[in-house]
Amino acid sequence: MVFGRGRKAKQEQTTDAGETPEDAAVGTDAPAEASDGARSAGPYDVSEIENQDGYVDLGALLIAPREGLQLRLEVEEATQRVVAVTMDLDSSSLQLQAFAAPRSEGLWDEIREQIGQSVGSQGGQVEEIEGHFGIELVAKLPAGDGSDGYRVARFIGVDGPRWFLRGVLGGEAALDRAAAAGLEELFRQIVVVRGENPMPPRDLLQLRLPRDSGVSAPQGAPEFEQPERGPEITQIG
Questions:
Q1: What percentage of the chain has pLDDT greater than the value 70?
Q2: What pTM value is reported for the model?
Q3: Where are the domains of the chain?
């Protein structure tokens, strides 16, 4: 697995953190059965796993490594706060963000409506479909290069105990469910660490570099382009 850190303004630096076989991704203990029946196959709350061995620890998210997987942390330039992690696998990507949520109700229904409004304001369209994680959104945004083409992204969301996890699939995974299988399986293995501190609903849960990554701040990092990622809609508050 390769791990890197990039600025949100599309800068990236990648270092080799070694490859980890998929069968060693989550340690020796399988996750305990999720208390929420809708999440019985993941993603999980940290209280639902036996231990954290074998995961890449990004603070609010624990990621199961996989051979060929690349991780990039996206940093907000003004505050240097990590606001998202993107998983790249083959020709697809999955952007992840975790948010605080109310104890008594989920956020996904409301957030889907907000995403639809945001995409519509940019001249795009959204369609609700039934997916492996419940209702999903397929968003089409103008390509922005003067052509009549569209960029496509598929939004998935899962409500957990006092947290909400959102994923944005780009590249082939946004168009072809078979191409999304690997990233969807990794999404199921994600563990969310909400923490006990009170937080307003919709606040981002804190992400950070793993302590043993050896990745430094990307001073002078080269610019990069990744058109497969599709529209980035990172604010839900």
A1: 72
A2: 0.76
A3: 2-229
